[in-house]
Design a protein that fits this description.
It is a single chain. The protein is of the alpha+beta class. Helices cover 44% and strands 22% of the residues. The protein is built from 6 helices and 15 strands. It has helices at residues 8-38, 88-104, 111-152, 161-200, 205-226, 286-289; strands at residues 44-48, 53-56, 61-66, 73-74, 79-84, 229-231, 236-240, 262-263, 268-273, 279-284, 297-302, 305-314, 319-320, 334-342, 352-356. The strands form 3 sheets. It has a 6-stranded antiparallel β-barrel. A hairpin with a 2-residue loop joins strand 11 (297-302) and strand 12.
């Protein structure tokens, strides 16, 4: 039996539905790929900003006391460490003794007039110093009140309104008192300068120049002594300086410089990192970057949930993406950084995120 040949028209009629279906799905796949590459999508990686506040040595010396450990929460203005400059205290005492000796040996004509001017100068200096000390104490109290107020008014805290208002009133009153005290200090400083001018008129130029030089030496030494106290420039968490290492970070109490360590003026001793942030950096290709504008809305995804955010600024150039911003940390990538800010959620510095426009 000889099989007959099937005409091509019948074959086409038998397979045309399959051909239409294949063409449809092929077109859908191509369209999806094109749209995926043209539009921003949720696979954009981001990282919460890590802002470091450096704490540097104000003078060269040895660490006499380290008052904090790594990971400790500190307030702005809190003392972190103190330095010891060998021989500094003795130098200050010697310079002050020279000043006192010179002043004690001054031979000024007109004894009663001299004594009156001296008493006037001493009284003016004493009043100015007392007012200055009181001003510094009030400024320190104001820093503490501001830190307390900022903590009590953080989002998410539900404290009695009367307690918060009472603290605000105390803060405002102290600010007004400090303003008045500063005006008083300025006025007393003017009185002291006028007293000094009258007293200087009784000294010969050579003696006056010697006295001024000695006083300048004392002031410089005391300024160096004040620089031995390291304070927190911002509230946050204490961290080690770049380059410091810990062999066992789980058991070691602190990787910060130990007591007795020598630091040079300007050396980075430790860092302060705020406990939270609202800014993040995401990395996009040039095609996406061209579509982004300042103020544009987006959503950030984190382990803590979703956060509404908006674009702050778009980077001006393509740069190397850090490992935490790459899909594969071992593969180098070059993209444009975009800084965004959350509207309703605090982020943990350094936490990984993803963005969805």
């Amino acid at each position: 039996m000889v099989a007959g040949r099937i005409p091509i028209q019948r074959r086409l009629r038998a397979y045309w539905l399959k051909m239409v279906a294949f063409t449809f799905w092929l077109g859908a796949a191509v369209t999806s790929a094109v749209l995926y590459n043209l539009e921003p999508h949720a696979d954009i990686l981001a990282t919460a900003q890590v802002e470091l506040y450096p704490v540097r040595a104000g003078t060269s010396g040895r660490i006499a006391e380290m008052k904090v450990v790594e990971g400790q929460q500190v307030a702005a203005g809190e003392t972190l460490a103190t330095l010891e400059v060998p021989g500094l205290t003795e130098q200050i005492k010697a310079a002050e003794a020279q000043v006192e000796a010179l002043v004690g040996n001054l031979a000024v004509e007109g004894g009663e007039r001299d004594r009156r001017y001296a008493r006037d100068l001493d009284g003016s200096r004493a009043r100015w110093l007392a007012a200055t000390v009181a001003l510094r104490d009030q400024e320190a109290d104001l820093v503490e009140l501001k830190v307390q107020y900022d903590r009590m008014t953080q989002p998410g805290l539900d404290l009695p309104a009367l307690e918060v208002e009472s603290l605000r009133v105390r803060r405002d009153a102290l600010e007004a008192a400090i303003a008045a005290r500063r005006a008083e200090v300025d006025a007393l400083q003017g009185d002291m300068q006028r007293s000094q001018a009258r007293a200087r008129g009784l000294l010969d130029p050579a003696t006056q120049a010697q006295l001024d030089a000695l006083k300048a030496t004392v002031d410089a030494l005391k300024a160096q002594q004040a620089a031995t106290v390291l304070v927190a420039p911002h509230a946050g968490v204490v961290g080690r300086a770049v380059g410091q290492r810990s062999d066992d970070p789980l058991t070691e109490r602190s990787a910060l410089p130990g007591v007795g360590s020598w630091v040079a003026a300007g050396d980075l001793v430790l860092t302060i990192t705020p406990a939270s942030t609202r800014e993040a950096v995401l990395w996009v290709d040039t095609l996406v970057a061209r579509r982004l504008k300042s103020g544009q809305s987006l959503t950030l995804q984190s382990l803590g949930g979703e956060a509404a955010a908006e674009v702050q600024r778009v980077g001006p150039a393509v740069v190397a993406v850090p490992p935490q911003g790459r899909a594969d940390p071992l593969v180098s990538e070059w993209k444009i950084p975009v800084v965004v800010r959350t509207l309703d959620m605090e982020l943990i510095p350094g936490e990984p995120l993803s963005a969805d426009f």
